[in-house]
Every structure is written in C-alpha cells, then in structure tokens.
C-alpha cells in the first residue's frame, strides 16, 4: 500500500545561539581627541544551510561621531566583514533558517596616535522553520470500512525578502547646516493578508544629529511611515504572517539647489506566510472479514500568529557618577541600542527585562565659564509588562524591541529624568501534538458468527459506527434493517441485525 495523501507541517524551533566578538581599528589622518557617540549595526547578507550546519556572513558597521584635534566634529564609518558557521544536526540543505542579531556590548580601547579600536560582542539567535513532509494519511485496502475525521495543521506557504526605502527631506539653513549622524530604528505596525499578497505597514524612527551655522550640535527626531504590498502566491485573508524589518546604511545627499538635505533609509522586510490547513484523514477502520491493525503516528505542530505591535514607556531617573563632568545643557540625545535579557510569558501578558542604551551629548562649564563639549553613555535597565491576549504560558513568543520618541531632562547637573517610548513587536507559536492514522494492515481472518439474528441494545453516546464495528456489519446494513431508528441513539434503543447463514450440505 502506498501513502499518497501527504501533509506539509510547519514548526518553528530555536536551534540555539552563537556569539561573535569583533574588533575594528579606526584610522584617521587627523587625530581623534574625543568620541561623542558610537553605534554598531549588524547586517546578515547570506544564509547557506547545509547538512548539519548553516553558514552565514555579513557586515558589521560602526558609526561614530568624533571630535578631531582641529576641533572639527566629524562622522566616521568603518565596516568589518564576518563569516560564521553554526552546527546543529537538525539543519539540512533545504532548511528555512531565520537569524536574529543583537548587540550585547560595545567598547573602545587602544588610543594611540589618533588610531583606536572598537570591540563589539554580538549574539546571533538561530531559528529554523521545519517542514515535515514525511507524514501521510493512510490509504485503506479494499473491503475495509473507514471513518474519517479532520486533521488540522499549519503549513509554510512561502518566505519573502524585499528591499524598500523611506525618503524624506529637511531644509538646509542656519538651523540645520550640516548632518553629522543618524540612527534609525524600524518597527512593524501591522500585517494585513489578502489573496496572493499582503501589506506590511510600519514606522522608522530616526534621530538626526546636526550642527547649526555657528557650530552648535543639536538633534531632532523624525518619524516616517511605510507601507509595502508584497506578492505571495497562496496567501489568503486568514493567513498568519510573521514579518521583520531592519534598516541599512542611510544615504544623505543635497538637492541641486543645495538648500535641502535628502534622506534615503533603505529597509529590508523579511516575512513568513503560514496557512492553516484541514485535511480529511482516517481515524478508525474495520473489516467484516479480517482483523485490522492501525498505525497511529503523533506529530508536533504549531499554530502561528501574525506579528503585532504594542507601545510602552520607560520612565526612570539616572544619576551621573562624580567622575563625569556635570551637565550644564543637553545638546543631543542619541538612542544607541536596546535589547532584551529575559522574558516571562504568562496567560495574556508578557514580562520583558532588558537594557536601553542612550548617548547624551552636552555642554559642561569649566571654571572660567567656557562651554566644554562632552558626552556620556547611559545604560537604563527596564522591566515592562505588556498585554498579549492571544498568548499563554506554553507558547513560544518571539519579541523585538526598538525605540520611539525619547525625552531627557537634566536636574542639578547630575540627575537625569528619562522618558523613552518603546515599540514592541511580537509574534507567537502555539505548540500542540496531533495524531493521524498512517497505515492500515489486514491481519488474520475473523471467525464467522454463527447466529442469524442479533439484538443489540444501544448505550448512551454510542454512534452507529461504534455498533457496526462491534457487531461486525456495515453501517448501511444497520440503517437498512432498522429503518425506524432515530439519531442520536437513545440509551437502550433496540437494534436488530439479520445475517444470512451458509448451510453446509453433508
């Protein structure tokens, strides 16, 4: 017997994580006297699964805003390529791999002759979306009565990766004379499925550091929305879509008249489309002539829920240490990184703990009343609980966080009041175990019943299938011979079965 009715079951599993420690040397023709702010961005470009491993490579980009020895404030960008191999026995050449990167640490060292190095630690979380094509519903042999039931499971329709961009302009005037630095955080706001396509909408929050015509540093926050219609054959209005967005290196130019700055922020949107499938499969079988053996196989499956967004705020106070120059005037606030270090899933809510990292550029006064340009990195621990009515404690919940608006106030030079808007994207999978009959085999021949008439009294909650299997006749025979039966059966209802006996001649 050949099984032909195969299922295509998708499950998402975290395979593990790997860590990269990277060092890049910053070289400058003019000596760097101070680093005002620094950020790092990781870009995974190629993912190559193989037998028992996945190779991936990409680029780490270090963006710095520095003061040179001629007092000029200048942006510097250095890039460093990387290549990693992650080993896991569950990876195959056809595996669908998802990789998320998180910056854990960024430190500078080795100042010497204007050159210094930056050291970063980056975690990569490795996920696979498995597609189990080995299971199939059983095909019955001849002369076997079967009862079918619905088997529900989720299949992966497709995964897509598209590139897009957000464009906006700012005037070039005395207030915004030179763009020095830009930091972007992208977030998914909604995912709306339709027939053979879906729409991903989101926002990009940009912090732009600039100088005025008199050389004073300032910053502003810019919020821009995006919406992309993505073709995906097989998508329907009930599809569940998990989407992820990241930004690439910003492109800043001036228009032909030289009076406006033009910003282009490239985006990469990765999406996975899942459909809920229902297949009719055999759940029970019997034969009048033969014993029947059923092989029932269990399988793990996931219900996938689409990406959603919630917004929360961090409100906290922070005290500068006595070794740091006091703040006289805040010039710019730059969000540099935000990460999660722990999460707890409860019924209808999720708790996340993490660290939000900010850089504050400010003036402090010296003893003669001169403004001295300084900066300080501030690590803000946070703990947030957000409502997620579609999750429970057994779910696997996948979360990304990013910054929205940020406001920092200074009190008495050393006390900071920080209010930061946090955008939380989450999606979840609901694990469960299901069963299907994968094989039906005929056993020994049954003994022939020697009675020509049998009276059976139905029990509460019994079905005609249960009785037919027990009496070794077809449901059709019962219905034909008991035309007065009403369904559902009542407790003690009489069923009469007639059999034609063979009379053996001597």
Structure at a glance:
With 506 residues, the chain is an all-beta fold.
Task: Describe what this molecule looks like in 3D.
- With 506 residues, the chain is mostly beta strands.
- It contains 2 helices and 24 strands.
- It folds into 2 domains: 405 residues, no CATH class; 60 residues, LysM domain (Membrane-bound Lytic Murein Transglycosylase D, Chain A), CATH 3.10.350.10.
- It starts with a strand and ends in an 8-residue tail after the last strand.
- The mean pLDDT is 91.
List the helices and strands and how they pair.
Blueprint: E1 5-6, E2 9-26, E3 32-50, E4 53-68, E5 73-87, E6 96-112, E7 115-132, E8 136-137, E9 145-171, E10 178-194, E11 197-211, E12 217-231, E13 240-247, E14 251-254, E15 260-286, E16 290-304, E17 308-319, E18 329-346, E19 349-365, E20 371-387, E21 396-411, E22 415-445, E23 453-457, H1 464-471, H2 475-481, E24 494-498
Antiparallel strand pairs: 1-8, 2-7, 3-4, 4-5, 6-7, 9-15, 10-11, 11-12, 13-15, 14-15, 16-22, 17-22, 18-19, 19-20, 21-22, 23-24
| Intertermini distance | 41 Å
The low-confidence runs, each spanning 5 or more residues with pLDDT under 50, are none
Shape summary = elongated
How big is the Rg?
33 Å
Compressed to H and E, one letter per element, the order equals EEEEEEEEEEEEEEEEEEEEEEEHHE
- Secondary structural class: mainly beta
Mean pLDDT over the residues: 91
Number of domains: 2
Largest sheet: 4 strands, antiparallel
**Share in helix:** under 10%
Please work out how many helical segments DSSP would assign.
2
Number of strands: 24
Which percent band covers the strand fraction?
Answer: over 45%
């Amino acid at each position: 017997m050949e099984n032909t009715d195969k299922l295509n079951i998708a499950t998402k599993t975290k395979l593990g994580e790997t860590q990269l420690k990277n060092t890049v040397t910053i070289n400058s023709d003019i000596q760097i006297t101070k680093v005002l702010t620094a950020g790092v961005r990781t870009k995974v470009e190629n993912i190559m699964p193989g037998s028992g491993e996945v190779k991936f490579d990409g680029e780490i980009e270090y963006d710095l805003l520095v003061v040179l020895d001629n007092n000029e404030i200048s942006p510097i960008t250095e890039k460093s390529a990387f290549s990693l191999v992650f080993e896991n026995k569950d990876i195959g050449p056809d595996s669908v791999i998802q990789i998320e990167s998180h910056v854990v640490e960024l430190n500078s060292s080795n100042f010497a002759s204007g050159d210094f190095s930056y050291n970063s630690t980056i975690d990569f979380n490795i996920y696979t979306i498995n597609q189990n094509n080995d299971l199939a519903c059983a095909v019955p042999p001849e002369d076997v009565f079967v009862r079918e039931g619905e088997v529900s499971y989720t299949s992966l329709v497709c995964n897509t990766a598209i590139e897009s961009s957000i464009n906006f302009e700012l005037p070039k005037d005395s207030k915004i004379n030179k763009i020095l630095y830009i930091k972007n955080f992208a977030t998914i706001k909604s995912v709306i499925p339709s027939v053979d396509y879906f729409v991903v909408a989101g926002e990009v929050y940009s912090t732009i550091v600039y100088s005025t015509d008199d050389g004073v540093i300032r910053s502003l926050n810019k919020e821009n929305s995006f919406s992309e219609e993505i073709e995906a054959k097989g998508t329907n209005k009930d599809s569940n879509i998990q989407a992820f967005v990241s930004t690439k290196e910003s492109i800043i130019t001036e228009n032909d008249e030289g009076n406006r700055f033009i910003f282009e922020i490239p985006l990469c949107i990765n999406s996975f489309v899942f459909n809920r499938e229902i297949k009719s499969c055999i759940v029970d079988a019997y034969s009048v002539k033969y014993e029947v053996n059923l092989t029932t196989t269990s399988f793990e499956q996931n219900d996938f829920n689409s990406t959603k967004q919630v917004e929360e705020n961090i409100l906290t106070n922070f005290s500068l240490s006595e070794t740091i120059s006091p703040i006289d005037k805040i010039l710019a606030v730059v969000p540099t990184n935000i990460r999660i270090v722990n999460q707890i899933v409860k019924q209808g809510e999720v708790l996340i703990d993490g660290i939000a990292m900010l850089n504050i550029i400010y003036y402090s006064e010296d003893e003669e009343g001169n403004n001295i340009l300084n900066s300080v990195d501030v690590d803000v621990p946070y703990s947030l609980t957000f409502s997620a009515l579609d999750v429970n404690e057994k779910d696997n919940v996948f979360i990304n966080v990013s910054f929205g608006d940020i406001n920092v106030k200074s009190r008495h030079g050393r006390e900071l009041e920080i209010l930061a808007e946090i955008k939380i994207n989450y999606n979840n999978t609901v694990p469960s175990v299901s069963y299907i009959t994968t094989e039906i085999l005929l056993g020994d021949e049954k003994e022939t019943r020697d009675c020509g008439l049998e009276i059976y009294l139905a029990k509460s909650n019994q079905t005609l299938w249960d009785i037919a299997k027990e009496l070794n006749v077809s449901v059709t025979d019962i219905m034909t011979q008991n035309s007065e039966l009403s369904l559902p059966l009542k407790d003690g209802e009489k069923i009469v079965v007639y059999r034609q006996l063979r009379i053996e001649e001597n």
